[in-house]
Write a structure and sequence with these properties.
The protein is of the alpha/beta class. 56% of the residues lie in helices and 17% in strands. The protein contains 5 helices and 4 strands. Strands 1, 2, 3 and 4 form a 4-stranded mixed beta sheet that branches. α5 links the parallel β2 and β3. The termini are far apart.
Length: 116
């Protein structure tokens, strides 16, 4: 009984600071784990890829000829992958062109499918 009483009222369970520290460490480990799983060398490389993805999507928002909702953009080690559906070959080509214009993009893999 003493053990269960001490455990249920232990410092860790009632100390919000302990939960905050544990949560922060858990998120840090998950962020590093994501980078390793995606075959990236560092968390910095992951952040760079997220920045490239965001920059490509921003170009799509600025350009009204590209449907931002229908085109998925993913980036891994500077290579941008486009997937989803384009309404025309012109839209597919424009999406690739805009992605290539972003500083830091090493290459673009255009897997968009033209669906009229």
């Amino acid at each position: 009984m003493i053990f269960s009483s001490r455990f249920s009222h232990g410092a860790f369970l009632v100390n919000p600071r302990a939960w905050l520290i544990a949560g922060s460490l858990g998120l840090s480990v998950m962020a590093v784990g994501c980078a390793v799983v995606r075959d990236q060398q560092t968390v910095g490389a992951y952040v760079d890829d997220v920045t490239l993805t965001t920059s490509v999507k921003a170009k799509y928002v600025e350009d009204k000829t590209v449907d931002t909702v229908a085109i998925k953009v993913e980036t891994l080690n500077g290579t941008v992958q486009l997937s989803g559906f384009a309404k025309s070959q012109a839209e597919k080509d424009q999406a690739e062109r805009l992605a290539r214009q972003v500083n830091g993009v090493k290459s673009v893999r255009n897997s968009l499918i033209v669906r009229p």
